[in-house]
């Protein structure tokens, strides 16, 4: 790591509930087309996805609601759907229509809605870049943590060590606790 490099952690705010159906469907269609699936199978999968998105009902305080935007976090397809949606967004910002200062991104790795990035430039340029990322029509909003010495990313602490070489360690959030169910608890066996 050089002196003007930043360790950056980006987090997409409320990803699952903020994906507009039309944008998510467009992203899935793009990747199905790129994968050379049979047109009939692709259309069938898109119909299933559309049905699941448009018929997501939930109960809250004895009232039934229809979720009109996003997907339920507990839906089996939700992580894949969110990944494809952000994958399409990444392709646009890096390849299709690269945004300003993209060459200052030396490293970009994403796990669902969390991004680890190495930035080479000033803090002001970094904040301007994140502001550009947040200026979009698909409802993606990022929070940004940055440091020139260390950053937490998921369960990893990444820091500059001796000779500016990156080192890693296990990171535990302050709220992490080792809570175990007592054998005499009334929880079902599958939750032990």
From TrEMBL:
This is Reverse transcriptase domain-containing protein. Coiled coil: none annotated. Pfam families: RVT_1. Signal peptide: none annotated. InterPro entries: RT_dom (IPR000477). Residues 1-192 form the Reverse transcriptase domain. It comes from the Eukaryota.
């Amino acid at each position: 790591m050089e002196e003007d490099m930043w360790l950056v952690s980006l987090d997409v705010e409320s990803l699952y509930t903020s994906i507009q159906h039309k944008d998510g469907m467009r992203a899935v269609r793009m990747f199905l087309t790129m994968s050379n699936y049979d047109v009939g199978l692709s259309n069938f999968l898109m119909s299933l996805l559309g049905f699941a998105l448009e018929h997501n009902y939930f109960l809250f305080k004895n009232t039934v609601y229809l979720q009109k935007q996003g997907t339920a976090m507990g839906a089996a397809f939700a992580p894949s759907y969110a990944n494809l949606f952000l994958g399409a967004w990444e392709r646009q910002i890096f390849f299709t229509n690269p945004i300003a200062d993209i060459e200052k991104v030396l490293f970009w790795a994403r796990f669902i809605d969390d991004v680890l990035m190495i930035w080479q430039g000033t803090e002001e340029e970094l904040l301007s870049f994140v502001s550009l990322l947040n200026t979009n029509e698909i409802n993606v909003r990022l929070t940004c943590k940055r440091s020139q010495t260390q950053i937490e990313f998921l369960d990893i602490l990444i820091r500059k060590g001796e000779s500016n070489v990156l080192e890693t360690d296990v990171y535990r959030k302050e709220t992490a606790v080792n809570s175990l169910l007592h054998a005499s608890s009334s929880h079902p066996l599958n939750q032990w």
